[in-house]
Structure to design on (653 residues):
């Protein structure tokens, strides 16, 4: 047997964050604790060979850890961000060492804790000292000549001394931080080679052995490489931010946190949310009382007469709203127009009884209450569109206050997972990525109203203008979203490549139970049967489903009148004349109807800026009427086409 001594600094191993918890103190203050899996008996390569930490009570010194050992940042003893709670560091039955540390309540430590909560800082490692180990020749792999490929050691006496939050997992072969500067002795016990006839009879005096000297380091080169790497990281993040039109504060947060550019890209793709996108706050600061005073009709009258003397209030607030409109869309529609302040339409929306509908939109679109002010309410026209837009009612995701063209990352095919043998690497698969690009397109609605009615400034004029324009624009948005054919209009569901489809028959066919179920299985086979699922159909199809049994003489109809909220096969159903009933299939004639089933939260309705009102006193001047035109910048697109299934050959007669 051979006994020798080597010297080593504190060694490092990757640790794992298992749980982050919050708790309240005696005086109501909040604490944040993080539970770490510090180590296991998994073999790890160190500078001296392959190391196995023995996890027995007699092998691990835990006094230091259980007396408030530090939680550090980057293994720097000058940057303590917390401490381990006394008595929490223990060896589990699974031979893993775990402990719970509490973050300091200092500003710096709380910033790090926030990054841990937000999954920005996800890597940790543990520092430990080794005092004694034994050569484990029985675990070593041998080469063709019978010599060990890598020496293996069982560590029988060791001590964890700290854990750290780090930017990247620890490299066990490299020491980092001031704590690593001191060395300690390690006693190494090594049995003789089995082929040695003197095995078990030889003894040696301890011989100091030091690790090989580190190669010469050129600090100038290292600094230059680090600077170039940082410039490249920032440039890559800026390119991603520009492509997806991301908020500056979101981008800055990850730049400051030293988030690697590839991790930032994965975050944008896998965890995308509307809160990441640049938006413009369309609010002007009007009070509810001011919003009630505002009159669209007075604004129209002022433009008609070229005299704002009776509409000074409207002129002032519309000017402020116009500034925000130009910021969002880059467009100014000229002196014969004005932009309705968002507070005005929100106040009228509340008066119209659509406040409950606002809460529904938030629930269906997956947005939390924190996004109401900046995401939903930023567009003043959405609330008035809700009662007339089937798509919004069905759960389409509404994005408002956007700036410039917007690109949304989407997966067209995901990566795969597989079981592998111990020590084997899985085959690499790359998710197929695509981009949904939405650009400001203009949707126009108009109404012709009596010139005399406008001049009289009656309340009726206000209601007629608002209701007619709302209906016109809502109808155009629904037509575009359901069956838009593309430029200049958006591409709707029926024309989007990659959606599922149900074929009823060569010449069309009436609904049957298997055909109706096929809509569901079509979406389910694409792993998309989730979210705001619903059917959308025209009145003819609704009537056919109401009078068609799932199976003969069962009394169970395809449209179940007893299930008001979910009448068609357990899902909500919305009816609109914006889906056609005059399509042709084979020799059917113009009698086929279309129907859509899918997850409507995967349909994005994007809005830029607010509602512009343009006054045209000339087009219909010979009839004594004024044409009032509403213009809204919007676009519509599908983030995941496979979330929808479509049929265009349903016979309803």
């Amino acid at each position: 047997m051979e006994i020798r001594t080597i010297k080593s600094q504190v060694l490092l191993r990757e640790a794992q964050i298992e749980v982050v918890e919050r708790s309240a103190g005696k005086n109501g203050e909040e604490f944040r604790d993080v539970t770490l899996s510090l180590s296991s008996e998994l073999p790890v390569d160190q500078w001296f060979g392959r190391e196995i930490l023995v996890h027995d009570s007699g092998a691990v010194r835990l006094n230091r850890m259980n007396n408030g050992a530090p939680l550090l940042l980057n293994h720097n003893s000058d940057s303590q961000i917390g401490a381990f709670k006394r008595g929490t560091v223990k060896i589990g039955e699974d031979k893993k060492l775990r402990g719970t540390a509490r973050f300091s309540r200092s500003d710096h430590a709380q910033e790090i804790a926030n990054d841990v909560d937000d999954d920005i800082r996800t890597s940790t490692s543990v520092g430990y000292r080794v005092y004694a180990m034994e050569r484990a020749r029985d675990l070593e792999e041998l080469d063709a000549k019978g010599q060990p490929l890598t020496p293996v050691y069982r560590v029988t006496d060791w001590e964890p001394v700290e854990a750290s939050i780090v930017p990247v997992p620890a490299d066990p072969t490299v020491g980092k931080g001031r704590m690593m500067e001191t060395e300690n002795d390690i006693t190494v016990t090594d049995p003789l080679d089995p082929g040695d006839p003197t095995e078990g009879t030889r003894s040696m005096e301890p011989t100091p052995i030091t690790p090989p000297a580190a190669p010469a380091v050129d600090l100038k080169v290292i600094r230059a490489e680090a600077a170039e790497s940082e410039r490249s990281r920032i440039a890559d993040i800026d390119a991603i931010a520009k492509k997806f039109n991301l908020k500056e504060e979101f981008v800055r947060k990850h730049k400051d946190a030293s988030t690697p550019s590839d991790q930032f890209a994965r975050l944008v793709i896998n965890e995308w949310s509307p809160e990441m996108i640049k938006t413009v706050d369309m609010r002007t600061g009007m009070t509810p009382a001011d919003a009630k005073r505002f009159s669209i009709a007075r604004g129209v009258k002022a433009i008609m007469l070229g005299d704002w003397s009776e509409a000074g209030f409207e002129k002032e607030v519309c000017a402020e709203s116009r500034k925000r409109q130009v910021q969002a869309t880059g467009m100014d529609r000229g002196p014969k127009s004005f932009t309705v302040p968002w507070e005005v339409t929100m106040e009228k929306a509340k008066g119209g009884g659509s406040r409950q509908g606002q809460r529904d939109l938030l629930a269906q679109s997956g947005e939390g209450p924190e996004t109401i002010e900046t995401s939903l309410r930023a567009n003043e026209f959405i609330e008035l569109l809700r009662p007339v837009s089937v798509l919004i009612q069905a759960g389409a995701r509404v994005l408002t206050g956007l700036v410039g063209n917007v690109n949304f990352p989407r997966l067209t095919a995901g990566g795969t997972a597989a079981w592998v043998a111990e020590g084997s690497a899985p085959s690499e698969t790359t998710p197929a990525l695509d981009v949904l690009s939405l650009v400001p397109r203009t949707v126009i609605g108009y109404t012709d109203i009596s010139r005399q009615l406008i001049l009289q400034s009656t309340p009726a004029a206000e209601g007629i203008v608002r209701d007619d324009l709302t209906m016109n624009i809502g109808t155009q948005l629904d037509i575009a979203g359901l069956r838009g054919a593309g430029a200049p209009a958006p591409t709707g569901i029926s024309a989007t490549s990659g959606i599922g489809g149900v074929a009823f028959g060569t010449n069309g066919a009436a609904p049957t139970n298997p055909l109706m179920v096929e809509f569901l299985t079509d979406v389910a086979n694409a792993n998309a049967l989730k979210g705001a699922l619903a059917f959308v159909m025209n009145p003819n199809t609704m009537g056919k489903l109401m009078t068609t049994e799932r199976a003969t003489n069962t009394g169970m109809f395809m449209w179940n009148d007893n299930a008001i909220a979910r009448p068609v096969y357990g899902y909500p159903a919305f009816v609109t004349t914006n889906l056609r009933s005059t399509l042709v299939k084979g020799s059917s004639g113009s009698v086929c109807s279309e129907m859509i089933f899918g997850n409507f939260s995967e349909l994005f309705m994007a809005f830029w800026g607010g509602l512009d009102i343009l006054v045209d006193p000339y087009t219909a001047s010979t009839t004594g009427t004024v044409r009032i035109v509403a213009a809204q910048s919007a676009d519509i697109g599908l983030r995941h086409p496979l979330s929808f299934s479509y049929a265009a050959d349903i016979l309803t007669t």
In short: Residues 2-212 form one domain. DSSP finds 16 helices and 25 strands in the chain. Residues 171-180, 194-207, 347-384 have pLDDT under 50 and may be disordered.
